[in-house]
Amino acid sequence: MLTKLLHYEFRATGRIVLPIAAGVLVLNVLAAVLGYFIQNTADSMPLAGVAMALLTFAAYISRLVFFVICYFVEVRQFYRLLGDSGYLMLALPVQPWKHIATKVICGTVWTLFGALFVSLCAAISALSYNAAEFSPVNPGDFWFCALLLLILVVCIAGALLHMYLACAFAAQFTQQRLLISIAAYFVIGFAGQMAALVAVAIFAFRGYKYFNSVDLTATAASLGSDNIVFLILLAVLVLVVLVDALLWALTQWFMTKRLNLA
Q1: How many Cβ atoms are within 10 Å of 78's Cβ, its own excluded?
Q2: In this structure, how many other beta carbons lie within 10 angstroms of the beta carbon of residue 153?
Q3: Counts for the chain of helices (H) and strands (E), in that order
Q4: Which of 39, 61, 91, 228 is the most exposed place for a label (fewest CB within 10 A)?
Q5: Helix (H) or strand (E) holding 17
């Protein structure tokens, strides 16, 4: 059932994202081609230079808007799931966690697609000014790059779950759900920052004696700088996964126990 939900979700959101992506790509290619021929003509053709500057700015804005659309398209879908669409979708014999998983997977994929697509369009624009530089990838950095990519994916999923939790909290009310969702988003973010600050303070006070008694220089020399960085990134990944799990559990609880479709 999860695969069917994903198929339906990608089809529903692809009808929105892909046509916009085609238009953004055409605009950026057009700006790159015209920029290649019109550059260095500001003295002889000042109006062409102004028009080219406006077109370049429009291409930049289109990339920014497209990335925002890729991120918020699934937030919109989740908000509708807890509203009018919920009468149909939530009536299906599907557990709430599958709905959440569908929205998280689809939202993460579209956000990554938006980032890659925007990077591609930016590279196309840079090529028109001979400004693109590509450095070779070091095979020894594969695991670091893979871990960083995994952290990025988990962070995107966490950002989406943050939005979903705000929407799920607002879904227990019958009026002003959008305003409540926005307010809940900032309140949840503030509460998370305060919890993180308290956790760091406790860790600092409790771990001060331990770190003070350990020869950090010898430990760093024995482990190696690369291994230390890898362990730090791994700890960050575990921490973000735990935060995502908490956001997921709260969202599922609101959808299961406190959802009000009226």
Answers
A1: 26
A2: 16
A3: 8, 0
A4: 91
A5: helix 2-38
Handedness of CA 199, 205, 210, 213 (dihedral sign): positive
> In this predicted model, what pLDDT tens digit does every residue of 189-208 receive, in sequence order?
999 889 888 887 887 777 65
User: What does each C-alpha distance from 248 to 105, 212, 226 come to in angstroms?
Assistant: 13, 37, 33
3-state SS assignment for residue 13: helix
Cα separation of 166 and 151, whole Å? Answer: 23
pTM (global) more than 0.85? no
Give me 61's structure tokens: 């804005």
CA proximity to 37, closest of 50, 23, 24, 49 = 49
Q: How many CB atoms lie within 10 A of CB 66?
A: 23
Count Cβ atoms within 10 A of the Cβ of residue 212 and give its class: 0-12 exposed, 13-18 middle, 19 or more buried: exposed
Q: How far apart are CA 164 and CA 155, in angstroms?
A: 14
Q: DSSP characters for 159-200?
A: HHHHHHHHHHHHTTSSS-HHHHHHHHHHHHHHHHHHHHHHHH
Q: Write the pLDDT tens digit of every residue in 45-64.
A: 667 667 777 888 898 899 99
- Cβ neighbours of 53 (radius 10 Å): 13
Closest CA to 184 of 205, 163, 202, 204: 163
Q: Which of 107, 253, 81 is nearest to 169 (CA)?
A: 253
